[in-house]
Amino acid sequence: MPTLGYVQRLYDFLRRHPTGVDAFWAFVLFGLSGLGLVAVADSEGREPALVAVPIIMGLCVVVALRRRATERMLVLAAGLGCAQMIFDVRPGPANFAMLVIIYTAAADGPRWASRFALAGGLAAAPLSQLRWPENTAGVWGNILFTVFMVVPFALAWVLGDSIRTRRAYLAQLEERADRLEREREAQSKVAVAAERARIARELHDVVAHNVSVMVVQADGAAYVLDAAPDQAKQALATISGTGRQALAEMRRLLGVLRTGEPEESGEYVPQPDVEQLDELIEQVRGAGLPVDFKVEGTPRPLPSGVELTAYRIVQEALTNTRKHGGENAGASVRLVYFDDGLGLLVEDDGKGAPHELYEDGGADGSGHGLIGMRERVGMVGGTLDAGPRPGGGFRISALLPLKPAH
Predict the structure, then answer these.
(1) 0.85 exceeded by the pTM?
(2) What's residue 261's pLDDT?
C-alpha cells in the first residue's frame, strides 16, 4: 500500500497550498487561451488582437487568486468582461475563469459577493449575445442559445451556494457535538461531586457511630475503674480497637473532595452492611428478579466502610439488572471472603446494559450508578471491573481489601 500513502501525502500537500493549485490551473488556462487566440486569428487570416492578451492574463489572475482575494477577483472579472465588450474581444477559453469566480464567490465570499456573482452570471450570456449576435441563427435561435449559455453560470452559482450551505450545516453539527460533549463532561463532574458528598455523609455516619461507642466505653471504664478493673481494661481495649477503625475511616474520608457541612434533609439512619444482603436480595426477588446468592469462605467482621461499599455495589448492580436486563433476566451474586480481601461478583443473563453505563466513566444518563461504584471502591483502595459478559448479559466484579487504605 505505499502508493496510497504517496497519494494521501500529495492530497494533504495540495490542501495546504490551495493558491499554488489555483496558480497551476491558471497557467494551464493561459496556455489554452493563447493557443485559442492564435487559432482564431489564423482562421480569420489576421494578426492576433494584442488587446486580448492583457484581458486573458487578467482572467488567469482571477483563477490564481480566487481563494486569496475572492471579492477583488470578482470585481476584476466583472471589469474584464466589460473590457471585452468595449474592445471587441470575443469570449474564449479564458472566460472559464468567470464560472470559477462565480462558484468561489457563492461558496466562500460574503453575501453581497454571492448575489453580485449570481446577477453577473445571469447577465453575462445575454450581454454577450447582444454584443456578438449570431446572424445566421435567427431571433429564436439567438434566444435559445442565450438560455443555453445562462445554464452553466447558474449551475456554477448553485453548486457554490450548496457547498456554503453544507459547510454551515457541518459547522453547526460540530458546534452542537462540542456543546453536548461539554455538557456531558459537566454532568459527569456534577455526578462525581454529588456521589462523593453522599459517600462522605455515609462515612460520617460510620465514624460518628464509632466515636459514640468510644465515648460510652470511656464513661463506663471511668465508672468501674476502681470497682472492676477487669471490666475497665476490657472497655479500654474496645476503645482502642474502635478508635483505630474510626481513624481508618477518617483517612478515607479525607480522600473525598468535599467542602463545607452538608445540609441534612432528614435524620441519620443506620448504614447497611453485608449481613443485610439477605434482606436486599429477598426484596429484589419479591420484585420479580430471580437472584442466586452464595457466600464462599468464612464470614467475619469487616471494616464498616468495606461493608457499606459491598452492600451498595450489590444494590446498584441488581438495580441495573432490573432496569436493563429485560423481562426474563436472572442474576447471581457471589460474596467471597479471602484472607486479605472481600470479593464480589454480580452477573446477569439479560440483554445487557448500554455501553454508556461502563464507558467514559460509567455515566448512565440518570443515576450515574457505576460512577458511584467506582468512587466507593477507589476510596477503600479496591478495584472494580464492569462490562458485558461473554454469552450475553452484564458482569460486575470487585475486590475490596480488608486492610485500611492509607
Answers:
(1) no
(2) 45
Dihedral sign for Cα atoms in the order 116, 118, 123, 128: positive
- For the chain, report the end-to-end CA distance as a whole number of angstroms: 54
> pLDDT tens digits for 71-119?
999 999 999 999 999 988 888 899 999 999 999 999 999 999 999 999 9
Residue 383: Cβ within 10 Å count: 13
- Interacting residues of 357 by C-beta distance below 8 A, sequence separation 6+: 320, 324, 363, 364, 369, 370, 386
By the 8 A CB rule, do 161 and 189 touch? no
User: What fold is seen in the domain 181-254?
Assistant: 1.20.5
Closest CA to 101 of 124, 85, 129: 124
Residue 334's pLDDT is 95
Q: Which three cell numbers stand for residue 101?
A: 469566480
β-bridge mates for residue 347, sequence order: 332, 395
Contacts of 39-46 with C-beta under 8 Å, sequence gap 24+, read 40/90, 40/92
Which of 210, 213, 206, 335 is CA-nearest to residue 271? 206
CATH topology for the 274-401 domain? Heat Shock Protein 90 (3.30.565)
Cβ pair 164, 108 in contact under 8 A = yes
Under 8 Å between Cβ of 73 and 66:
yes
- Residue 386 parent element (H or E): strand 383-388
Mean pLDDT of the chain: 81
**What percent of the chain is predicted at pLDDT more than 70?**
79
C-alpha span between 123 and 137 (Å, rounded): 20
For 7-62, the pLDDT digits (tens) are 778 777 778 888 888 999 999 999 998 888 877 766 665 555 678 889 999 999 99
Q: Starting at the earlier edge strand, list the strands of the sheet with 394-401.
A: 291-296, 331-337, 341-348, 394-401, 383-388
Contact present, 49 and 95 (Cβ < 8 Å): no
Q: Kindly state the helix (H) or strand (E) to which residue 388 belongs, with its residue range.
A: strand 383-388
Residue with cell 456573482: 117
- Domain residue limits, the chain: 2-132, 181-254, 274-401
